[in-house]
Design goal:
mainly alpha; Ferritin; 0% strand; DUF4142 domain-containing protein; Ferritin-like; DUF4142
């Protein structure tokens, strides 16, 4: 399942040529890795808040309901830092979930209750793996200390979530043979 943690990969070609007319042209735009990180992290947090809340209500397992509630709460806290940092760096964030996030929300809403816990575990594992890659990319490529601080603060939270997911997957593998 593809959700919000895909890394933005649009790069504008640099301007070339030194003609006098080019001096009046706007400077070439490059993808700002910090802005891309903040925008992608924000969409990921919007996804986790919505998906976690759905899981807290819909999951059949109390373990999954607790994970969903925890992921939603943690993502709300993380997103506050993302929004504050974006505002200080003058990075505009979409106020609403994008179409990819909305597709994930629709999937969770339409998944039958019997299949929900497994869909939650597999999709969350994928999303958290992508989140780690996004964070590492920001820590490697980011220029702004404030954005890097957000990434540094998010990494242990995402790692704890991944560990909890692995524990839940082991639990379900032990209770659901075959």
């Amino acid at each position: 399942m593809v959700i919000a943690f895909g890394v933005v990969a649009a790069l504008a070609a640099p301007a070339t040529g030194a003609a006098a007319d080019d001096r009046m042209a706007p400077p070439a735009r490059r993808l700002d890795p910090d802005a891309a990180f903040l925008r992608t992290a924000h969409q990921g947090n919007l996804a986790q808040i919505a998906l976690g809340r759905i899981a807290a209500r819909k999951a059949t397992s109390p373990m999954i309901r607790r994970l969903g509630a925890r992921f939603a709460a943690d993502s709300a806290r993380l997103d506050a830092a993302v929004r504050d940092t974006a505002a200080s760096l003058r990075v505009t964030l979409d106020p609403e979930a994008n179409s990819t996030v909305q597709q994930g929300i629709a999937l969770y809403r339409t998944t039958g209750q019997n299949d929900f816990d497994q869909v939650f575990l597999s999709s969350q594992a994928t999303m958290h793996d992508r989140a780690v890659r996004l964070i590492r990319s920001e820590l490697t490529d980011g220029d702004e200390a404030a954005a890097r601080q957000v990434a540094t603060g998010a990494l242990p939270v995402v790692r704890r979530h991944r560990a909890a997911l692995k524990n839940a997957q082991k639990h379900f593998a032990g209770t659901n043979p075959g």
